[in-house]
């Protein structure tokens, strides 16, 4: 992902902008990442500070083990990277000139309904 580094703070709007442009240009990447936040957030907003890091791994006992940075910084899981890309791609398929607010609506809708929003 161009211009976005793991373990660095970004506003959600910045992450959306970069990843949506990448998805629009190159399609679904299926990249191994998740979005994490400092607080247990259930609503996406443009100014929400997020960090990207690897997905948690699953032990033989079915326990999730989060990346060291996530644990050290006491971050909370916010969004799975594959679902995040899926939502952005879906919004782009429906609205070629989608705004950041459109993406935010789509992300929140998906979190609430586990399905894509119709625009």
TrEMBL record:
The residues covered by the DUF7716 domain are 32-119
What name has this protein been given in UniProt? DUF7716 domain-containing protein
